[in-house]
Amino acid sequence: MTSIAAPLTTADGQPLKVSLRRAQRRSRLRAVALVLPLFLFLVISFLMPIAEMLLRSVENPEIVELMPRTTEAIQDWDGQGLPPEAVFQAAREDLVAGRLARNIGTVGSRLNYEFSGGRSLITRSSRQAARWEAPFKDAMIAADRRWGDPEVWQIIQREAEPYTLSYYLAALDMAYTPDGEIVKKPAQQSIYVDLFWRTIWMSMLITALTLVLGYPVAYLLATLPLRYSNLLMILVLLPFWTSLLVRTTTWIAILQTQGVLNDMLVWVGLIGNQSRAQMIYNQTGTIVAMTHILLPFMILPLYSVMKTISPAYMRAARSLGAPPFIAYLRIYLPQTAPGIGAGGILVFILSIGYYITPALVGGESGRFITNFVAYHMQVSLNWGLAAAIGTILLGAVLILYWLYNRLIGIDSLKFG
Amino acid sequence: MAMPPYATPGEKVVITAFRLFCAAVFLFLIGPILVIIPLSFNAEPYFTFTKDMLSFNPDGYSLRWYQDFFTSSDWLRSIQNSFIIAIAATIVSTVLGTLAALGLSSRFMPYRAAVMGLMISPMVVPLIISAAGMFFFYSKTGLVQSYAGVILAHAVLGTPFVVITVTSTLMGFDHSLTRAAASLGASPIRTFFKVVLPLVTPGVVSGALFAFITSFDEVVVVLFISGPEQRTVPIQMWAGIREQISPTILAVATLLVVLSILLLTTLELLRRRSERLRGMSPG
Question: Would you list the domain boundaries of chain A?
Fold first, then answer.
């Protein structure tokens, strides 16, 4: 055996290893350069907005920025009884300044999230503050008895911080007690936890329905000869490609009390003209319309998995004497598990974040948590709370997305 | 479709039941979309079939809702807006998405899975959350209530579709073709235009169609970040459903169904062409 005389080289005399490494580095750089534009684009116009929302859910600038003197003076207070005169004086100066700058209302709205009447306390006091005379403690309590309530000052002290968790507490139906402990709100004031559970429960139901309806269809499409299955596939793809609002509108036309389905039922005689069924603007409406809208997202992944299962396995099981049902249960079903997982997670993710359909056909009882994000964004303008609810929802979706990526791999996602 | 010749009577019952069930699901899928088409020709302002319609009396049918649509400046303006926004967003997301997909399908791409996960995320994050974040962020930068803001937002939402379709086209791409081109003396640029591009074009076009329909159909983000200037067709429909529900919406819906049929047909033709190019037999 002869030892290797010299390392392998390329034509220009470079050692092969060096040359190869250089070529690979070049390929890597080229790949990165191709991805970079989209990466930067997404960072700027997608990730930064999302980060902005996360920030909004903990940001608490109102009192710190608009009542700076109070914020400073109240730091030293031990929280017992009423704060010292210096705090009252600082509050008075902030109220006067805030009225001049016309931004004291923001503080009022902020405090109103913490206790009802906060807005009126601030706006009314700010109007009178210029006329108060020392000692300000007595003057303020005389002007509004609530200034003599230690709880109000405890709340101001708590919220005189640049960051807060109170939006998250509100989103989870919890609140601070005056001593700073966290407790659950009484049942009649709790909305969001129930709504989170309802969203999850309805999404699970919708996922289950799409699976029950979609599995047989996917099986049929995967086993029929291509000539037929291509045709039938159009019936799945057309709804998939049709505008979401069109599909929601069409369910309104069908399900409403004067709609097509009720007319048909009355005509057949199943129900009387006076007792038309209420099938929309409630949970039923949301579930039916969303099952219809999300069904293709279940059928397509199931189909692509079933397509790869060789019919030979079933034939083998049958020829070895398994009854059809057992063969199906033990041989076919386990092989479709990845498809069930993919379709299930996909439909569930899409479902819990859905907004349009529940908002249009859900009425009161078919509402999702997303409807409250929209409500606080557009109507109550409590953006901190909207951001906190949104962040919790986003967390849930990202965990599921990670799971999907782990189990199935995002690469396998395909359309049509 | 005949029964398999070896089926026992019991199996025949099961197979028949199975087929009936599938037929019912297909009806559930396609029925609602078909129902809306005749309803849009209703002569009365109802959302259901009138007696005249059921007895095929020509008086029961009319084109008044289409006339309504084509003479309403609001609707026409929204159509124009939708096309401007969707086309611009499609261009941005197709260019960026295709480049990224070319990079992502390279073996040498570092952190491939993580980057891919990021690029797909706009499709997974609930729209209402993207919309809220974009509203906060874009209002800081003055992009709220502007065409640029809506186009940017829709380009973000469209890119995952382009990335997915182009990457999956490239997955089936035979890399020996580029090597063959290189060994025959073609420069990398020439190889790209003469060999790579013709093969991935169907993927790029179908990705672009997806991006287009995503933007054209998008409501939530527009609802949050657009001003009255940028009202699109979905916003107009959304307002119509919530406020003054009139069958004009059904006419619009029918036109949109026709649009989706056109897009679907284009996509199907592209798929066949792509299969032919790769030498796979068409179905």
Answer: 61-163, 192-412
- Taking CA–CA distances from B209, the nearest residue in chain A reads A241
A236–B contact, CB cutoff 8 A: yes
Measured between alpha carbons, how far is A182 from A192 in angstroms, rounded to an integer? Answer: 16
Task: Please tell me the distance from the alpha carbon of residue A393 to that of residue A370, in angstroms, as a whole number.
Answer: 8
Q: Cβ A353–B32 below 8 Å, yes or no?
A: no
Full domain range(s) for residue B171: 82-232
Is it true that domain A192-412 has CATH number 1.10.3720.10?
Answer: yes
Contacts of B249 in chain A (CB under 8 A): 249
Q: With a CB-CB cutoff of 8 Å, which residues 211-250 of chain B face chain A?
A: 213, 216-217, 219-220, 224, 234, 237-238, 241-242, 245, 249-250
Q: How far apart are the C-alpha atoms of A167 and A174, rounded to whole Å?
A: 9
Residue A415 pLDDT > 60, yes or no? no
Find the residue in A nearest to B110 (Cα).
Answer: A28
Per-residue confidence (pLDDT) for residue A412, from 0 to 100? 62
pLDDT tens column, B189-240: 898 888 888 888 888 988 999 899 999 999 999 999 988 888 999 999 998 8
Average pLDDT for A216-228? 90
CA distance A4 to chain B (A): 30
Residues within 8 A of B (CB atoms), A 240-279 only: 241-254, 256, 258-260, 263
Tell me the pTM: 0.87
| Percent of chain B scoring above 70 in pLDDT | 96
Number of domains chain B is built from: 1
Write out pLDDT tens, residues A232-266: 988 998 988 888 888 988 898 888 888 888 888 88
Band of pLDDT at residue B268, cut at 50, 70 and 90 = confident
